[in-house]
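To fix ideas, we now present one chain and its tokenised fold:
***
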Amino acid sequence: MAAHLSPLSHTSPATAASVAAVATATLPEIAQRLRQALREVVGHRALLIFTEDCTGRPQKKAGDPEITEHASILELEDVRRRLASGEDVRTARIGGQDRPVLALAAPTGAILVLCEPDAEDAAALEDTTTASAYVRIVWEMAATRIRQQVSDASPAYLVESRAASAERLRVTTELTESHATDLESLLALLRNTGIDDRRARAAAVELATTALVHAKTRSDVVVALTEEPVASAFERLRADLRPLTRFGRLDVQFVEPPADGRALPGEVAHAARAIVRSAVLAFNDQPDTTRVRIQWDCDGTNLLIKLRDDGAGALDGSVAELRQVQARVSILGGRAELTGVPGWGSEIDVTLPLDAPPPATSGWDLAPRERDVLRLIAAGQRNRQIATTLGISENTVKFHTSHLYRKLGVSSRAAAAAAAIASGLR
């Protein structure tokens, strides 16, 4: 059980240090640091964060691997939906089990789930205003820190985000497995000879209707985590630059992208906005610049960004803002070109690929049979189906699967399938 906070105990040096660690945490560190800060008030087995701000890894987890390795995005989306409806969420299905939880939403839209909180500590939160305020303040600080880092789109974040595209594929795999379960349930019902046709038909209709609702909801989650429409991404850019256009000396002109352009992967949308912000700041530092033109377009494969000013055409690519632009572009495998014509202005052309290159599979060192098993896992087959397809025993399939998990560095079937799909193994 955690030590309960008195009105002054949260100002101790140790507590202050743990809060400061949250305020300065990087994205990979933030869950663990937040857990350390909150455990001073409420003990818990695991901490889960779910945020659409960070499209690379919307889950951030710390604590007991039995929970963190099995918690799914769809489970956390369900918690978020319940919180948004005003429900006081005390229990939730996490990691395939119903568990007591302490769940909080932040103004950014992110949610925090403390799994299996110490019962006495959780009760103390309701009775102690100071302790409850501490938990909420530290959590909202963490959520703001996440949004800030994603908005900045640092090269480190973009590396992590693009490398984590398998996370989104894992969600898709979870969705596929859920569909398979619904279909198996429907078939089992229709094959049941113990109920008459009328009752079977009514039950089948109810089951199918429920499955369709779930499928639509979950598909919306997958899309939201994977992509951002180019028009809404551009509108968010307008909002980012609004203070500069309202109070600054620059006349910023926006050329809208095609409304029907291809949606942008999350990391590309974040990077594109950060690239434009940095470039506009570089333009703004030129004393003779009064107007900047910003244009986005999409050729189906790349996001095309063109920025032009009306300055002296002497913008230096070595300035800090443009070095940051180049770093972000390089991380995403794109190209950036700066040109200037004396007396006519400077122009920056950026090309950002919308698709990440597939990761190489050579480092996995898979045996031919392991590769066969992985390909069938990616196709959605169960162990029994794989055994039949390959003419081997189910135990042999399990043996190969355990070796695959170790070689791929994953801990679940969905993650293995996502890694295979991301690598192009079909």
